[in-house]
């Protein structure tokens, strides 16, 4: 329960078996409501604002309490702080991490009444200064809010100013930190919305080569086929991999990250295959090349002839082989390779 801006100890009366209670770095100003924690052995109240030291007497009913930490509280500055506490809580064995000896307690018992009177006087003085501090800090906070600045400049001005060590200012610091974190999250979300979207093709339609997953690979250009061996992570689930083979490029999506490679020659997409190794996890994609001379073949006595189209007659049956290489006679009319 540390670092939670707790201002009051309460609602712990049903924790009968609680042995260790950590309330460090909170805004507690008084020790109270712990008498029902019958099994309490260790209590940590480090870096709180306990100025009413006589409130430790409420721990006398916690007969199993052996360790108490009050380091960093205003009451520890009282001259007779330690002598008073070790007598006020006779079952205590360690105070602020230091062992309480029998001789130390015996010596402190002699001046207990005088120490208690002095503690009460110091508490009264502290309470007066504390009330003044509350008003002073409240005025500082209000004046800071009334400054004619935007939220970001107000926040910067707040972090640059000197502040007092008190519960109100600790609460204000926590509120400003929460506001700063919220603004950072908004900036992060906006950045995510504007995240990089990869461009897969150039303006003329030529596919780019991309490796967003940053995977190693080997690519071999054989006479009749392409082979791509992508070194996918060994323990990556195959359902997170998507393979898309097109006539002039191959695209593999690995955990929503795109690997794309452009191909110089077109491939027969209906005969492509992809296999994944069960040992290494690598993905092998085999893509047979498309041979232009075998694209359209109609045999007729072993000779190839261009088809003559006669628009003024009815369509005749196909005779000979379509010579696709001589469709465009003028090379200047052939568009550049994309």
Automatic annotation (TrEMBL):
- Tell me the compartments it is located in: Cell projection, Cilium; Cytoplasm
The segment(s) forming the Dynein axonemal assembly factor 11-like CS domain are 171-289
Q: Name one GO biological process term.
A: outer dynein arm assembly
| Pfam families in UniProt | CS_DNAAF11_C, LRR_9
Entry superkingdom: Eukaryota
PROSITE patterns, A to Z: LRR (PS51450)
| Alphabetical UniProt keywords | Cell projection, Cilium, Cytoplasm, Leucine-rich repeat, Repeat
Task: Give a GO cellular-component term.
Answer: cytoplasm
Matching InterPro entries? CS_DNAAF11_C (IPR056496), Leu-rich_rpt (IPR001611), LRR_dom_sf (IPR032675)
Q: According to its UniProt record, which protein family does this protein belong to? A: Belongs to the tilB family.
Specify the protein name: Dynein axonemal assembly factor 11-like CS domain-containing protein
């Amino acid at each position: 329960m540390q670092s939670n801006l707790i201002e009051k100890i309460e609602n712990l009366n049903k924790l009968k078996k609680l042995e260790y209670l950590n309330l460090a770095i909170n805004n507690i100003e008084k020790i109270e409501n712990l008498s029902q924690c019958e099994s309490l052995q260790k209590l940590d109240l480090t870096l709180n604002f306990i100025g009413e030291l006589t409130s430790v007497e409420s721990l006398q009913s916690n007969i199993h309490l052996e360790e108490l930490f009050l380091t960093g509280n205003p009451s520890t500055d009282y001259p007779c702080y330690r002598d008073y506490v070790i007598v006020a809580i006779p079952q205590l064995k360690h105070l602020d991490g230091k062992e309480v000896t029998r001789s130390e307690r015996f010596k402190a018992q002699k001046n207990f009444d005088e120490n208690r009177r002095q503690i009460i006087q110091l508490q009264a003085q502290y309470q007066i200064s504390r009330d003044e501090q509350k008003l002073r800090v409240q005025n500082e906070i209000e004046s800071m809010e009334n400054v004619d600045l935007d939220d970001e400049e107000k926040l910067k001005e707040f972090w640059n100013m000197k502040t007092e060590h008190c519960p109100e200012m600790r609460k204000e610091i926590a509120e400003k930190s929460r506001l700063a974190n919220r603004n950072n999250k908004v900036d992060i979300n906006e950045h995510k919305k504007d995240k990089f979207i990869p461009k897969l093709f150039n303006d003329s339609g030529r596919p780019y080569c991309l490796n967003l997953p940053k995977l190693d690979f080997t690519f071999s250009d054989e006479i009749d086929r392409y082979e791509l061996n992508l070194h996918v992570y060994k323990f990556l689930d195959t359902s997170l991999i998507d393979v898309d083979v097109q006539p002039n490029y191959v695209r593999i999506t690995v955990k929503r990250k795109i690997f794309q490679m452009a191909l110089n020659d077109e491939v027969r997409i209906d005969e492509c295959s992809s296999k994944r190794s069960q040992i290494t996890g690598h993905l092998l994609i085999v893509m047979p090349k498309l041979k232009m001379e075998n694209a359209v073949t109609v045999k007729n006595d072993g000779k190839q002839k261009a088809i003559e189209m006669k628009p003024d007659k009815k369509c005749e049956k196909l005779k000979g082989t379509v010579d696709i290489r001589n469709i465009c006679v003028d090379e200047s009319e052939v568009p550049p390779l994309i």
